[in-house]
Amino acid sequence: MRLLQRTVGLCNWLYNTALEQRITAWKYHRVSLTCYQQHAELPEIKEAFPEFKNVHSQVLQDVLTCLDKTYQAFFARRKTGGKGGFPRFQGSHRYHSFTYKQYQNGAYADNGFLVLSKIGRVKVLWSRPLEGTPKTVTISHEADGWYVCFSCAGVEMPALPKTGQEVGVDVGIKSFLTTSDGVHVGNPQWLRKMEKQLKWHQRRVSRRKQGSKRRKKAVAGLAKVYQTVRRQREDFHHKQSVALVKQYDVIYVEDLQVANMVKNHHLAKSISDARWAQFRAILTFKAACAGKSVVAVPPAYTSQDCSRCGMRVQKSLSVRTHICPQCGLVMDRDENGATHVKWAGQALRGVPGLPGPLSRASPRL
Length: 365
Fold this sequence. Notes:
This protein is α+β, with helices and mostly antiparallel strands. The chain has a domain at 2-153. 43% of the residues lie in helices and 18% in strands. The protein is built from 11 helices and 13 strands. The chain has helices spanning 2-29, 35-40, 42-48, 57-79, 190-193, 195-207, 213-247, 258-261, 268-274, 276-289, 333-348, and strands spanning 97-100, 107-110, 113-116, 120-123, 133-142, 145-153, 166-171, 175-179, 184-186, 250-254, 293-297, 321-323, 330-332. Strand 8 and strand 9 (184-186) form a beta hairpin. Helix 1 (2-29) packs across helix 4, helix 6 (195-207) packs antiparallel against helix 7 and helix 7 packs across helix 10 (276-289). The longest helix has 35 residues, at 213-247. The chain is elongated, with a radius of gyration of 25 Å.
């Protein structure tokens, strides 16, 4: 484990040093360094700092490649008018993994062990057998230990049988999700359930002296609580997404801008705890693997417009029942929103035979 930690530390140092080099080159010489130029300097770095000879060359190359990807993503956002997100220096508490870019070139499995170049044989508790052809190997450190992740090619993902069903999904805080079929799934609020434990561990950390072993132990305890919350939430998201993908061929969801929604300080914690964006990403991935589809719908007025006649009925968040004065529809607010999301999504896809006001080509904004 000491050798694994040493490798992570050296990769962290290389990342920050390479980032500083790029910033300095542009600031003083207006030179934009490329990934290949920095790769070419690795032999010199190994001569100047012999400890880097104890790290496989492809691991070091991957560090520089990751830095280059963050630069490319930054400039891509700027070109499309998005916000910054300039690459930043990574503290030791944020940098916790390294990758062998080619399986069998520095890393491979052998009789239940994982053989890592420059590190040795590491015993692994395998969660399942390897499938397909392994391509890369990533070692990461989490609160409760070390993990290995293999990316594999040629893994067959059998498509699920078609059901011919479509559904609209409305995510929320009181109910995590509500479907147009009237199904309500409660919001577990994992973070709020663990707030008492989190506060206890946070106070414990604040009372420990900076740099002491007792503080490191307290920080590790706090990290484990956060890890528990994260894993509970991810497990919940996976289970809900699987249930939807098995039952429906097309799933309509709102294209929510969560970054703007958390600006409401009264709801920010609950919105962050729900992790709607993470749920949508998992749902989209699972749907694609199963041969199903997820359609994003503009979210404007989905909870205000009547799903039967299209009349806009203004209501605050405290009003949980939709009552339409025009057509007389009385329905749960979230269910009405989910139904509207379904109709609006079908209108975007050009599905014929929609209710009158919703037969338009796109939702009213």
